[in-house]
Amino acid sequence: MKFEDIYKNLNLKSFIIGAALFAFIVVIGVEYKLDALLIFSSAGLLYIGYGSQNKIQAIILGAIGTLPLFIATIFFQRLGPITGENITFLILISFLAIGAFCGFTGFYFSESRKKAIEEKIRKESIGKGKKKKNKKNR
After folding, report:
1. Enclosing domain of residue 54
2. Residue 129: is it exposed, middle or buried by C-beta count within 10 angstroms (0-12/13-18/19+)?
3. Would you give the DSSP letter of residue 76?
4. What's the whole-model pTM score?
5. How many domains does the chain have?
6. pLDDT tens-digit profile of 21-73?
7. Are 104 and 45 in contact (CB under 8 A)?
8. How far apart are CA 70 and CA 76, in angstroms?
């Protein structure tokens, strides 16, 4: 894999929608105390990975997709007041790790779906030509 594969063919639509969806769901869930809504916040990061072209690109874009929520957390204190000296660094590392994992998982789902579709097409095409040959031979 070349370094160019990481930044070429970026699906900016899935990246922007996924990052915005992730941050929006978390902020709304915390603001209105809808904790059950937080479960679905990773859908945005999964969408980023699903739209990526390769594994490394999915991991990097998934990690970068968490930065809007990190900025909202640290600078605007949307998730509550933050106290402590090293907590900012720990929040950043945890967000990046979660984003990388979700991006990889979304890419894995995408690859599994592509393989399943290819397998289905291959199985459907196995018996297609046999009936025509039998009719000609009779």
Report:
1. 4-137
2. exposed
3. S
4. 0.82
5. 1
6. 999 999 999 889 999 999 999 999 999 999 999 999 999 999 999 999 999 88
7. no
8. 10
